[in-house]
Structures are given as structure tokens and as C-alpha cells.
Amino acid sequence: MDKEELYKKLKEAYSDQNLNQITGKLIDLYKAKNHCQIRTIANRISKYLPVSEESDTKRFSRLIMMYHPDKGEMYRKAIEKASKEPNLLDLESFSHILLLEKVEFTEAAVFDDLEFDPDYEWDPSESGFNYIFDTEDEYREQFDQDSTDDGVYEKNFYNAVKIRIYGNLNTEFPSYYLEDYDDMEFSGCAIEYLDGIEYCKHAMTLDLSRNHITDITLLWELVNLQELYLSNNHIAYIDALSNLLDLRMVDLSGNEINDITPLLHLEHLEYVNLIGNRIPLKQVDELRKKDVLVMI
Predict the structure, then answer these.
(1) What does pLDDT average to over the chain?
(2) In whole angstroms, how far apart are CA 209 and each of 55, 93, 105?
(3) Which residue, of 1, 79, 237, 247, has the greatest Cβ tally within 10 A?
(4) How many domains does the chain divide into?
(5) Beta strands 293-295 and 271-273: pairing type?
(6) Residues 90 and 175 reside in one and the same domain
(7) Chosen domain end from 55, 86, 101
(8) Is 7 in a helix, a strand, or coil?
(9) Domain end point (choices 52, 73, 101)
(10) Closest CA to 91 of 11, 181, 172, 209
């Protein structure tokens, strides 16, 4: 494909109409929980953009940020500029969108258990606390631990970290070790309480999606957070987020939130996913007036 032909194709692909179609289809897939299809789309463009090796929540968020029509004008100006450069590579860097033309956007949810994703079982029975970890080489490997006297374990963040690292709760893990982590991935770990999260003082990315969290008060001190994924929990109040002044992306979809005023004064906020919550349209409009990309 020569430069002129590629230029025309890209201008059409990055039109508001086409970007609206792509975004709409991605949202439909997300609502239908068709994570496998979203993963297929991310894998198709992974040569150009690194979005394939992340959790489903992050993958969806990054695809939306990439192809949302609000970005259309910016892309079109950049394509116009690249078309005047002698090097074709500048123009080709935008061609990942053309790969989506061959993707079948089917909305139906599909059974999918092949993602590399940790899975926890909090078992208060005699078998104790089981940890199941899926890898590409071994489909399932289970670690068992003897139960405590009453056979009950608190399903908190700190215990989840110990199980992630050691496969048991017996090994000592000083809380100050958590200060060394800047990217925390604990989606789908059956976490109910955030005890221990307050030690992650330098965390910049935190994924706690698909857990059983109701109270996020302990996130208040994590002032370095830039990306936060809390989808599919049981969260109603997000007051703690008002202190996270560096926050750029937050996914709150699939919760029980009806007030997002704590987000209105976050100056660096770029993206908020609110799908599945009942948010007053007035608050959504206030966010959008601040040039925040809002999914509802």
C-alpha cells in the first residue's frame, strides 16, 4: 500500500463515525462480559500497542482510551502531519486500527477460563485456605495450608499478597515490603477487606477488579495512584478517591455507586468507567465538561 492510499484509509478509519462504531461495539462486548472477544481484538493490535498482556478490565479501558471518538481530531491532525513526512513509518504507526476491519464483533458472552489470572479459594473447612494459580505451562496448581484453630481466614488484601507470593499464610511477610511495589494486580482474588493496602505507598497502578470489596476507605493514603481498577465489586461510596490527586484512570463499573462528586476535583483525571452504576446525569456532564472520557 503506497502512502497516498494509506493516508486515505487512515483518514476514513479515524473518522468520528467509525470511532463511534468501534467504541460502541467494545462497550457492548464489555457489558456482555465477552472478555474473550475483547482479548482477541487486543491481541490483533499487540504488534503496534502493548495491550494484550493485561487484565480484562485494563485491556478494555486501554482500548476505549485508544479508539474513543474524543480522540478523533487529535489522530486526524497527527495523520495529516505524518503524511507530509518522507518516512512512511510515521504514517504506518497509526495503521493498527485497520486490523480491526477483519474482527467479528459478536456480543454474546462466551465461556472463557483460559486467561492467565490468579484465582483464590478461601476455604474455612478442614482443608484450609486453597490457592489456585493458572499459568501457561500448568493449567492448575493448587497449594493447601492447614487451617487455623477456628478454620477461618480473613479475606483481606494482606493475606492475598502472602498467598500470591508464598502460597500459604505461615511465611512471615513484613508489611514494609509492600512499599516496593508500584504495580499491583489482584483481580478475581475473592478479597473482601483492604487491610494491608495502606502500606502500598508507592503504588501507581492497582487492579482490584472482580472481588467482594465494599469499603475503599484505606485507599485514601495511596496518593501516588494513577490507575485504579475496581470494577465488579460491591462499592457504594468513593469518598477516599478525592485524595488521589494524581489519578488518571479509574474503572468503577459494576458497583453500587450513585454519587461521583469525589471525582470532580481531580485535575489529572482522563478516563472514568461508570457502566452498571446509577449516576446522576448532571454529575456525568460535570466530569465531561472537564474533558474526562466517561463511560456510562
Answers:
(1) 82
(2) 9, 32, 24
(3) 247
(4) 2
(5) parallel
(6) no
(7) 101
(8) helix
(9) 101
(10) 11
Which residues does 95 contact at the CB level (< 8 Å), separation at least 6?
Answer: 6, 10, 48
pLDDT tens per residue across span 157-205:
999 998 888 888 888 888 888 988 889 999 988 999 999 999 999 999 9
* 3-state helix vs strand vs coil in the chain, percent to 5: 40, 10, 50
Note the pTM of the prediction, 2 decimals. Answer: 0.80
C-alpha cell at 58: 485494563
Cell of 264: 470532580
- Dmax over Cα atoms in the chain, in whole Å? 73
What's the pLDDT score for residue 48? 74
3-state secondary structure of 120: strand
Residue range of the domain that includes 30: 3-101
Buried b (16+ CB within 10 A) or exposed e, 212-242: ebeebebbebbebbbbbbbbbbebebbebbe
User: Which cell numbers hold the place of 181?
Assistant: 511495589
Return the higher-pLDDT residue of 283 and 152.
Answer: 283
Q: And the C-alpha cell for 1? A: 500500500
pLDDT in tens, 95-141: 899 988 766 666 554 434 333 344 444 443 333 333 334 432 332 23
Q: How confident is the model over 30-43, as pLDDT tens digits?
A: 888 888 888 888 88
Cell of 34: 465477552
Distances (CA, A) of 20 to 14, 38, 48, 69, 92: 10, 16, 21, 6, 22
**Tens digits of residue pLDDT in 247-265:** 999 999 999 999 999 999 9
Neighbours of 45 (CB within 10 A): 21
Q: What are phi and psi of 227, to 5 degrees?
A: -130, 130
